[in-house]
Specification:
Helix content is 39%, strand content 17%. The chain is built from 19 helices and 20 strands. α6 crosses α12, α12 runs antiparallel to α13 and α15 crosses α16.
Length: 647
């Protein structure tokens, strides 16, 4: 498997050292110890708290020349030692800097024995428990663009970016209060190219502040499409007036990857996906839709290419469409169901149609569509018997699905009708000269188109709307019959992936007051996924199982999400899938079904190019009018060639 470094990941860390107030050399030793530990964990970027080289709470001691002199000595020592124990690591530390007859609260960016730049704090708090203006000047007061420090001429500017010449990494720094402002410096950094934002902080603890601070960081990372590393002063700071909790957080595009609090002398780290952020920025063309007049300077450097090993340090969710926590999942299901229901209600109102026609197979997709239809009619106060539920048993229909379809419609109070299609299909086979003993694609698709013809004709007869039942995953794979179940007047499930369909049905089952409906839905959830177009086995059970033919929908939905949401390459999708499904599928199985996914996704675009209308419910949509525009004759070979290089 390829190294994670080549997949766009970078390992970043936040550390809270045990601080010795006004003892820079002791603090340097502690930071060296943590840097050495971080190097063993292959951390590439390490962030320490605000003023960590002296301690944030030195107060009037910041005016003591001895403290400032010893701080410079400790910085020199830190440069020498970290070059040995953490070679090539980008280290960001906080310290006071004398410049232009003033004292500045700064972040120093260190790399391989050099000071790449000094970033002064932009906003200096001087309210409530903060008195920083007593000691420090804001960045706008500086006169110089460079200073001499530790025998080096160093860039000195609040608008510095640090860019790895061999990777996507571009780092911008801000300090504590900067984040709490209406327009944080990190917002400007991001607009000028920074995709990893770091914050050196000394934020004290107050009741309720932690959650607010976490929201600030999480939302700033989302707003900037960036990674965000936050390190705040820890419990070993002075408790004269306030307590510091040492909150550390690593966020990425709105999600917290790692965090810790109320410990010091420790390190947290995670692998941030720079590819993901850069793809998000390219897709969101409004991200750069303004003029940028700030004078920025880019400082180049080169990170170690050793990489972070074959396994990434972050959670890879195997079910990206499905929240893992039940409370969140239930909220998501309720929201999606309301989007589907509202879309259908509005389509009925605006067409003036008061009847719906829907084919019910006893499977998951048609069940969800029927539940949405039922609730839409209830919302509009339309008679439920104006929903025409048609079950159409054919050659592959089993007693289990037929019984569930019949019982569900009766319990929901919709109009039930059963129309067998076997005789009509046999007559059609005779008309077109097809031997029914040959159970090929013609044998299967004749049934699907016969069912669609029945639904459309009943809709004409009743002046009704045919409700489509196919889901997003089937559309991605083209697992539908062109001009068969592919077609309807309004496809309520078109934006819902298969892995989420079952949770929507399960959520409805758990919230219904009707115990009979609950039992029917539970049995439908336990039924194997199948189009039931081939005859059942000798025991009358489903013989044709979709996931045995095209692969697990768990895998396909994972592939779909990571390919479309983030634009990842096939190699990266494979890499992530191997991590997410380790122990459930072998790497060879994942690669096999990933090739199936790409072949089908490209070859079946023609079906998606003429989809009926349907509501978008999430970030992934395949409607040619909404999100996905792709030529039907696009060639998948380049994507397949990359997969052929994998083991």
């Amino acid at each position: 498997m390829s190294d994670a470094l080549n997949m766009g990941f970078i390992r970043v860390g936040a550390a809270v050292p045990k601080v010795h107030i006004a003892s820079p050399m002791a603090n340097a030793e502690e930071m060296i110890r943590i840097a050495e530990q971080a190097a063993k964990e292959k951390v590439a970027v390490l962030v320490f708290p605000e003023l960590c080289l002296t301690g944030y709470t030195c107060a009037d001691l910041f005016h003591q020349q001895l403290l400032l002199s010893n701080t410079r000595t400790a910085l020199e020592y830190l440069l020498i030692k970290t070059q040995i124990v953490a070679a090539n690591m980008l280290i960001v530390i906080g310290l006071p800097i004398e410049a232009d007859n003033q004292l500045f609260n700064c972040a120093a960016i260190l790399h391989n024995g050099k000071i790449l730049g000094i970033v002064p704090k932009v906003f200096i708090p001087n309210y409530n428990e903060f008195y920083e203006k007593r000691w420090f000047s804001p960045a706008r007061n500086r006169l110089s663009n460079s200073i001499t420090l530790c025998g080096q001429v160093v860039p000195f500017n609040e608008n510095l970016l640090f860019k790895d010449n061999k990777a996507h990494l571009c780092l911008g720094a801000e300090i504590c209060e900067d984040l709490w402002m209406p327009v944080p410096p990190s917002s400007r950094h991001a607009l000028h190219g920074a995709n990893l934002l770091v914050n050196l902080s000394a934020s004290n603890e107050l009741v309720g502040k932690t959650k607010y601070r976490e929201d600030l960081i999480r939302l700033q990372s989302a707003r900037c499409f960036a990674g965000y590393v936050y390190a705040s002063a820890g419990p070993s700071e002075s408790t004269t007036d306030v307590v510091f909790g040492g909150q550390m957080m690593i966020a990425e595009n709105g999600s917290i990857l790692e965090q810790n609090r109320f410990h010091d002398g420790i390190l947290i780290y995670a692998d941030v996906d720079l590819d993901k952020m850069m793809n998000e920025r390219r897709k969101s063309n409004s991200f750069m839709d303004e003029s940028h007049t700030d004078d920025y300077r880019v400082i180049p450097f080169i990170l170690d290419e050793a990489g972070i090993g074959p396994r990434i340090k972050r959670e890879i969710d195997p079910y990206p469409f499905v929240p893992s926590k039940k409370e969140e999942r239930d909220l998501r299901c309720r929201e999606i169901f309301m989007i589907q229901q509202t879309g259908l209600s509005q389509r009925l109102l605006k067409t003036g149609i008061r009847k719906a026609v829907i084919g019910i197979s006893g499977g998951l997709d048609s069940t969800l569509a029927l539940l949405v239809c039922r609730e839409a009619f209830a919302q509009l106060e339309y008679p439920l018997n104006e929903i025409y539920g048609i079950t159409m048993p054919g050659f592959g229909t089993t007693g289990r699905t037929l019984t569930n379809a019949r019982n569900l419609m009766q319990e929901l109070g919709v109009r039930y009708q059963e129309i067998a299609i076997s005789d009509a299909c046999l007559k059609h086979f005779e008309d077109i000269g097809h031997d029914p003993a040959i159970k090929d694609v013609t044998y299967e698709n004749v049934q699907a188109r016969e069912r669609t013809q029945i639904l459309m004709d009943i809709a004409n007869k009743q002046d009704g709307l045919v409700i489509g039942t196919g889901d997003l995953s089937e559309l991605a794979l083209g697992w539908c019959t062109y001009n068969g179940d592919h077609m309807s007047h309004y496809g309520v499930n078109a934006g819902v992936p298969k892995t989420l369909v079952k949770y929507l049905v399960s959520w409805y089952a758990d919230t219904t007051d009707n115990p009979k409906i609950h039992r029917i839905l539970r049995d439908i959830l336990d039924t194997p996924i199948s189009p039931e177009l081939l005859p059942p086995d000798i025991t009358g059970k489903i013989e044709q199982k979709t996931e045995e033919l095209i692969g697990s929908y768990d895998l396909h939905d994972f592939f779909l999400y990571n390919m479309m949401r983030w634009g990842f390459s096939p190699a990266k999708v494979y890499y992530l899938a191997c991590s997410a499904f380790s122990g459930e599928f072998t790497n060879q199985e994942i690669l096999k079904w990933l090739k199936v996914f790409y072949r089908r996704f490209f070859s079946q675009q023609f079906k998606r190019s003429c989809l009926p209308d349907g509501p978008k419910v999430g970030s992934i949509c395949l409607s040619p009018r909404g999100d996905w525009r792709m030529p039907s004759d696009a060639n998948a070979q380049m994507w397949l060639n990359e997969l052929d290089t994998l083991n």
